[in-house]
Amino acid sequence: MAALIRLEESFSNRPASRPVEKKDAGQLEIQLTSWPDDVRGIPNITLRSALFGSSRSSGQPYLQRAEIYTQRPTQMRYTGPRLDQGDLDVWITLLHIARRKPMGKSFKTSAYELLKQQGKTDDGNNRKTLYKRLFRLAAATLEISTARHSYTGGLVDSIYRDEITHNLVITLNPELSKLFGPNEFTLVDWSIRRSLNSKPLAQWLHGFLSSHAEPIPMSVDTIMLMAGSLDTSASSREQNLCRALAALQLASNHHEQPFSYEICGGHLHIKRKPSNSQYRHLGRKQSKAKWNGK
Questions:
Q1: Quick check: bond before 73 cis, omega within 30?
Q2: How many structural domains comprise the chain?
Q3: Residue 153 and residue 238: Cα distance in Å, rounded?
Q4: Does one domain contain both 174 and 52?
Q5: Which terminus of the chain has fewer CB atoms gathered within 10 Å of its CB, N or C?
Q6: Are the C-beta atoms of residues 241 and 220 closer than 8 Å to each other?
Q7: Which domain holds residue 241?
């Protein structure tokens, strides 16, 4: 489970603390738990679902309260334009910039900063694509129900652009902070994700595997449904999955996070060497299981 080492490094390095709540001038401020610059904090529900799919969104229809395939027990409905991994890059970049700021309060940024954070050049085509993705995110509405809480709202509350300076003012819903509770988000290695640009299925797999400390075998059909694949051919789905896994394995090996995989009987099996922190996580899990069995 190549990507899983850093991926799982991500999992085990996730802060277990809750979003920070601070009082300022008599008002309660909610701030995301911060994380280093070389990772991106992403809610697990977006990594374990087809919300940001592995198929390109171009030309896809507008969805109206469509049920999104997701890992149980989470349930999700979505209204808005179909989103892809490029849209996810923009959204997590906004979260990355906003992580040290009070949620719900507007923050200033620019197309230049958003593109720079994604490792993209600030040219006309990239700006045009960026604005399209920002507007798609602003048009998105989620209905999420988990075992602990529910959320109905947008991914981006508002976007203001000064047409003269081209500065952007972004507002995120403060309730999004609830998606960053203990063990509910993952720190994804940004270097690996960036190296998988233009490989959306490999990017989705990277995020999905990163969110699990101990991935279990899953059927190819289930994985591709959760990845939001629009491929209707079973043989084509498996071929695409193999290509994506090979790309992910290569990128992970390059970043010294090797893993191995095998597709056997229509199921994907991942193997990797857990990090020290992952061993501790799994050890606590086993100890709890033994205690509950007494």
A1: yes
A2: 2
A3: 35
A4: yes
A5: C
A6: yes
A7: 186-287
Write the CB contacts of 237 (distance below 8 Å, at least 6 apart in sequence): 220, 221, 224, 229, 231
Task: Mark whether 33 and 173 lie in a shared domain.
Answer: yes
Residue 250, domain CATH: 1.10.10
| Distance between start and end Cα atoms, the chain | 33
Q: Cα–Cα distance between 179 and 41 in angstroms, integer?
A: 11
Closest to 89 (Cα-Cα) out of 62, 123, 126? 126
Based on the domain organization, do 155 and 215 belong to the same domain?
A: no
Length of the chain measured in residues: 294
Distance CA(216)–CA(254), nearest Å, equals 24
Number of other CB atoms surrounding residue 99 within 10 Å: 17
pLDDT digits (tens, 9 = 90+) for 52-94: 999 876 667 899 999 999 988 899 999 999 999 999 999 999 9
Geometric angle at alpha carbon 266, from 263 and 270, rounded to 5°: 35
- Is 206 in the same domain as 71? no
Shared domain for 202 and 64, answered yes or no, is no
Instruction: Give 100-158 pLDDT, tens digit per residue.
Output: 888 788 999 999 999 999 999 999 999 999 999 999 999 999 999 988 788 999 999 99
Judge if 53 and 86 occupy the same domain: yes
Other CB atoms within a 10 A radius of the CB of residue 262 amount to: 11
